[in-house]
Amino acid sequence: MKQILLAIPVFFLVACADNDSSSDLTSPVDHLAVGDSITNQAQQVLLTNVAGAMKQGGPVHAVEFCNINASSLMDSLSELHHVSISRVSEKNRNPNNKASGFEIDLLTTLESLNLKDTVLVAQGKTTYYKSIRLGMPACIKCHGVPNEDINEATLSVLNQRYPNDLATGYKLEDFRGAWKVVFSDN
Questions:
Q1: Structural contact between residues 83 and 184, judged by C-beta atoms closer than 8 angstroms
Q2: Strand order in 83-88's β-sheet?
Q3: How far is the C-alpha of 14 from the C-alpha of 4, rounded, in Å?
Q4: What's this model's pTM, rounded to 2 decimal places?
Q5: What is the pLDDT of residues 94-115, one digit of tens each?
Q6: Which of 33, 51, 87, 175 lies 20 to 30 Å from 115 when distance is taken between CA atoms?
Q7: At residue 70, what are phi and psi to the nearest 5 degrees?
Q8: Strand positions, DSSP E, the chain
Q9: Phi/psi at 15 (nearest 5 deg)?
Q10: What is the pLDDT of residue 16?
């Protein structure tokens, strides 16, 4: 519970601080703005590529595309921005995106308070988190309710590519997890 309480004051500190665009990247306000910009770009790159894969071969092709390419897309953007970009969720599809115990508490806080984002500084690292909600009907074709929203062929590929998949059962606008940007400037 202490961890959740720490996340809330940091968010309010960041949200209430003056936005001085002339300051360097050591202030939480800058990390908030830069994190938001980076995650907007990451989400756009990912969704554009997934939409292209959906057009080429439907949800089955999109699952295969994500399995092979999503991590390398995020790695390229991480390198470009000199940060580490990932997604975290309690109901992860990719095992590398499993939220830690602290992050599960943070995700619960983000969801329950309907917060867009926050910046945390701990152990010399600045980390930005931004809520992810399922915002497009196309997302439901791979993250929706099995055998209702997700067809049998897509389920089969999901089971092959992600045998421990937890990322189904969602509806539009459901909280899915968070983008995570770890800055390397500390």
A1: yes
A2: 83-88, 175-183, 125-133, 117-122
A3: 16
A4: 0.82
A5: 999 999 999 999 999 999 999 9
A6: 51
A7: -60, -45
A8: 83-88, 117-122, 125-133, 175-183
A9: -70, -30
A10: 34
